[in-house]
Amino acid sequence: DAGVTQSPTHLIKTRGQHVTLRCSPISGHKSVSWYQQVLGQGPQFIFQYYEKEERGRGNFPDRFSARQFPNYSSELNVNALLLGDSALYLCASSLTGGPNYGYTFGSGTRLTVV
Amino acid sequence: GENVEQHPSTLSVQEGDSAVIKCTYSDSASNYFPWYKQELGKGPQLIIDIRSNVGEKKDQRIAVTLNKTAKHFSLHITETQPEDSAVYFCANGGGGNKLTFGTGTQLKVEL
Question: Are A31 and A12 in contact (CB under 8 A)?
């Protein structure tokens, strides 16, 4: 069985640009959550989607947005990129709407903003 | 607000020794306490978790203890092996839609 798939694995963007990151959850999982992991720190919650609806949002500016598609895959969009947006962006898949029954993380997308 | 403190930030042990990582949390509503292992270039992997109605849980060489009164929980790894070298994160959840992570512990198991 395929695990959580994230694409791209790495990318470099310029300040002010826009980026779209993609995630495919484990087959049968209906919830996708996004986390930002800055180098040397623990992951920080950005969004949770369950059954295509936003169920939670972390303390991130409106430049960050996301959506979930009918096949439960998800996109994270970041507008007007800042240097501080450089991080590893992780997608977590879970069967139900919350993390309390175990997340499975993807390997992440390493975003560098220059 | 919610906060999870994790200590130590780095830990070096000899192969075969035990390793202990400790976390404290502030959110009284927390009821789920997972531990993740993250290897270089990979996402975090769940290694063990415990819920608030249990004080201790063990899975082979790994054990977790929880003290809800004191708001702290710990990861214990016995008989450490070189492949245990990684960054370990504690986290907690309050039944909602997110986990709050600690700052991580870089564990190095030396031969």
Answer: no
